[in-house]
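pipeline stage [seq->struct] | target=GPW/gp25 family protein | organism=Roseateles subflavus | residues=135
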Amino acid sequence: MSILGRGWSFPPRFDADQRAVLCEDVPDIEESLHILFRTRRGERVMQHAYGSLLHHFVFELTNEQTLTELCSMLRLAIMYFEPRIEVETLEAVVSPEDWARVEVQLGYRVRTTNTRHNMVYPLYLEQASHPVQAT
């Protein structure tokens, strides 16, 4: 049994014997973070505060202020809803390959094992702005 927890894989999958596929330890934490980031606040029936406001940033300007607000919002969501980790670094940067993609780079420490891990969460902006290039 894992000391970090065990839960259903996300998205839910089933093995050949029709049993739910489970994940545990750090993969369980990372799946939990993905679920937290993708869930809109108010979407869960019994936990209205659970989730993030990432969808509010889709049509925002991709500037330093927006990226800072995005990181602050995610830091609070993680603090309240993922107690197994402590955020060490959290940065949002516009992808150099695709200006419509913001990469959320998260460095965290698992509290019970004191191990450090990194995760990159891509946020694809449906309509993003980018700086006008001088000609």
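stage status: PASS
auto-comment: DSSP finds two helices and five strands in the chain. The radius of gyration is 17 Å.
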